[in-house]
Amino acid sequence: MGSLQAADRERFETELRQSILTAQSLSGEYRIIWPSGEVRHIKVAAKAGLTNGKRVSHFIGVSFDITEVKVAQESLAASQVFLDRTGMVAGVGGWKV
Model pTM? Predict the structure, then answer.
C-alpha cells in the first residue's frame, strides 16, 4: 500500500474495510507511484475469501495498469473542449445524426 498515491489511500482503505466488513468484492481505480516517481493508474478487482463461510480471511484478485486508457480519455476530453470552444468562436455548431 505504500505506493498508493496519498490522495487515493484513504478511499482505498475505506473501501477495503467495507469489503472486509460485508464480505463483498473490492473493485476500484487508484493511482500508484513507481519508484521512479511516475504516476500510473491501476484497476483493482478482488473477491473476498471466507473462513468457515463467514469471516474474510483473504482476497483473490487482479490489478492491471490502465494508464494508457486514462491518458486517451483525458486527451479525448481535451479535444472535445477545444472543438466546442472553436465552434463557439467561429459561430458554428454541430449536429448528431
Answer: 0.74
Structure-block grid coordinates of residue 95: 449536429
- Closest by CA position to 55, among listed 14, 23, 25: 23
The answer to whether 46 touches 30, Cβ cutoff 8 Å, is no
pLDDT digits 0-9 by tens, 6-34: 999 999 999 999 999 999 999 999 999 99
Cell triple for residue 11? 478511499
Q: State the Cα angle at 90 between 84 and 94, rounded to 5°.
A: 50
pLDDT tens digits for range 37-75: 999 999 999 999 999 878 999 999 999 999 999 999 999
| Residue 43 CB partners (closer than 8 Å, separation 6+) | 27, 28, 29, 63, 64, 66
The Cα 80–Cα 71 span in angstroms is 14
The secondary structure of the chain in percent helix, strand, coil, rounded to multiples of 5, reads 40, 35, 25
